[in-house]
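Hi support team,

I've been running sequence recovery on a batch of backbones for a student project. Most finish fine, but this one hangs at about 90% for roughly twenty minutes before it completes. I'm not sure whether the input is malformed or the queue is just slow. I've pasted the structure tokens below so you can try to reproduce it. Let me know if you need the job ID as well.

Thanks,
M.K.
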């Protein structure tokens, strides 16, 4: 009886509590901060010296060339905030929503995988040069580049982060009026620039239509 009482009085060893092991996360790649850095740098570049005084809303729609990865449809709605460096030249920052209808598989539709809708956000710096800017209808050329961040990989099995490099030409209608209209053609190249091991890219031919709702160029004439 005394032996049992003594054993009960002995302090019991408490096992040390150990937290459950957390699942290991993939180590971030060395370029993990690149998209955010490029986004901020591109937006800040035109603002460093000039005030934005032109506003345009532009719709873009087109198709990529067909490859063994398939073909993608691309639509975008863009807001341009620009500064007229002269009556002929404008530099703008562009931000917009992008929607792609692309093959779900790396192999296109060869195995009947179908297509998927992919939404993304894009930003770029755009330069537009007008000719015969004094005329009410005049031509222009443009070019720009910037990052695209999508909810899924573009194309499939590549990267969610890409660059859009674009060049185009068109005409401005009612240039001397209150709301000039822009209509044109734009070639876009979408690729990740080596950010991912796979980088097939998309070459897109697109039509553009837009309206200028604030016109600093008109006041400079």
């Amino acid at each position: 009886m005394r032996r049992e009482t003594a054993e009960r009085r002995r302090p019991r060893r408490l096992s040390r509590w150990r937290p459950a092991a957390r699942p290991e996360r993939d180590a971030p790649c060395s370029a993990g901060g690149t998209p955010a850095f490029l986004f901020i740098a591109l937006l800040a570049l035109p603002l460093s010296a000039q005030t934005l005084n032109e506003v345009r809303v532009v719709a873009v729609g087109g198709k990529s060339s067909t490859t063994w990865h398939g073909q993608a449809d691309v639509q975008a709605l863009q807001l341009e905030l620009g500064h007229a460096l002269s009556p002929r030249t404008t530099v703008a920052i562009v931000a917009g929503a992008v929607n792609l209808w692309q093959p779900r598989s790396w192999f296109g539709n060869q195995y009947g995988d179908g297509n998927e809708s992919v939404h993304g956000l894009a930003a770029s710096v755009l330069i537009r040069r007008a000719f015969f800017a004094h005329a009410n209808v005049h031509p222009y050329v443009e070019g720009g580049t910037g990052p695209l961040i999508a909810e899924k990989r573009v194309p499939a099995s590549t990267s969610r982060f890409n660059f859009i490099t674009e060049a185009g030409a068109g005409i401005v209608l009612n240039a001397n009026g209150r709301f000039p209209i822009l209509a044109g053609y734009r070639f876009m190249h979408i690729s990740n620039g080596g950010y991912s091991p796979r980088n097939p890219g998309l070459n897109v031919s697109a039509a553009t239509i837009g309206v200028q709702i604030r016109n600093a160029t008109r006041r400079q004439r």
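--
Follow-up from support: It reproduced on our side and the slowdown came from queue contention, not your input. The mean pLDDT is 81. No action needed from you.
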